[in-house]
Amino acid sequence: MSESTATRRSLEVALGERSYPIHIGPALIGDPAWLTPHLAGRQVMIVTNETVAPHYLARLRKGLPAELTVHELILPDGEATKTFASVTRIWDALLEAGFNRRCTLIALGGGVIGDMVGFAAACYQRGVAFVQVPTTLLAQVDSSVGGKTGVNHPLGKNMIGAFWQPRAVLIDTDTLRTLPERELSAGLAEVIKYGLIRDAAFLDWLEAELPALRRLEPAALTRAIERSCELKAEIVAEDETEQGVRALLNLGHTFGHAIEAHQGYGNWLHGEAVGAGMAMAAELSRRLGWLSTAEVERAAAIIEAAGLPLAAPADMGVDDFLTRMRLDKKNVDDRLRLVLLHALGEAVIHDETPRELLEDLLASYPRR
User: Fold this and answer.
1) 102 is catalytic
2) DSSP state of 150
3) 232 is an active site residue
4) Against a cut of 0.85, is the pTM above it?
5) Element (H, E) at 148
6) Confidence band (pLDDT; 50, 70, 90) for 328?
7) How far apart are alpha carbons 182 and 368 in whole angstroms?
8) Among the listed residues 210, 228, 229, the one whose alpha carbon sits nearest the alpha carbon of residue 220
9) Per annotation, catalytic residue among 23, 152, 157, 190
10) What is the 3-state secondary structure (H, E, C) of 156-218?
11) Catalytic residue status for 126
């Protein structure tokens, strides 16, 4: 990608005094004009992982002013590392380096790094600044925006964490050049989600442009990222701590998180589990009388065209799903709350699904 084929764009997450920009475009990593204004003080800790570091760490560090004190921490890669122990390593590094309350943490990587660094920043000395520099499509369109931070627990995904907003999100679209195809598809799951829950016209566009997105065509990628971030920013501004409408962002996630936890974190990528989960949510919506068979088939075709699975894991029974789903963070007073679809482009939070209907779906849904 080059400046001639994809321009830089900016938008804002409007949260009053805690508002922050999202910058999107090529060659942002290493450009001090985009990062330096968001640093809180003179101490910077860059946290990344073993996969991302060889590609982008030196470039990011080179773009920081020479007068800063900069430290680096390189963690192992993978969803299985998203643990309290990994966050403790970040705190250890900060304390050993003598970092104070005016330090800034920079999360350079995908959603795992972003979530852990944000959680570490939320807790270190009761809260310090951090900046998101997401390098995967999934992180760029979803997890880097909105301030959800945390780690996984063996019984449930993202069960330990905090809401802590970054000072900025820098989305360098050039990083998608080094993204494996499977990871790209995982990110497309979250892009499709935005169309399904809130923007039917965007879903129409995605249906036509998925081949271009999978070919990494710059104009298509920039539009998909920008529109996804716009929708996420609108919802976060309405409901920062997920007391209401923000829960709609979890379409497919109750089913998907159950798959991830049961299979072992990292065996199914988050986006893969969400893809299957969205297909399951669409089918349940049909059984409730909200979607037609044609709409369910259309949603499934879009998900499949992104390279995502539709079927659930062969080794997960009804009880396996229900046990994990009961731990979902949206649940209130022992009522299972699901994000379902009244129509393609219109999601709803529903906590009155008859148990028999849900169990029948889980029993009859295709496995692979």
Assistant:
1) no
2) E
3) yes
4) yes
5) strand 148-153
6) confident
7) 18
8) 210
9) 190
10) EEEEEEEECCCCEEEEEHHHHHHCCHHHHHHHHHHHHHHHHHHCHHHHHHHHHHHHHHHCCCH
11) yes
Contacts of 153 (CB under 8 A, 6+ apart): 159, 160
CB 170 within 8 A of CB 34: yes
pLDDT, tens digit (0-9, with 9 covering 90-100), for 106-143: 999 999 999 999 999 999 999 999 999 999 999 999 99
9 classed as catalytic: no
Tell me which of 38, 82, 223, 232 is the catalytic residue. 232
Residue 130, strand partner residues:
105
Coil vs helix vs strand at 356: helix
Is 89 annotated as catalytic?
no
Active-site annotation holds for 250: yes
CB 141 within 8 A of CB 191: yes
CB 146 within 8 A of CB 188: no
Of the residues 226, 242, 272, 283, which is catalytic? 242
For the question of residue 217 being annotated catalytic, the response is no
Query: Which residues have C-beta within 8 Å of that of residue 73, sequence separation ≥ 6?
Result: 45, 46, 47, 48, 89, 90, 93
- Spot the catalytic one: 38, 226, 250, 324: 250
Q: Could you please report the per-residue DSSP string of 243-283?
A: SSGGGGGGTTHHHHHHHHHHH-BTTB-HHHHHHHHHHHHHH
Length of the chain in residues, anyone?
368
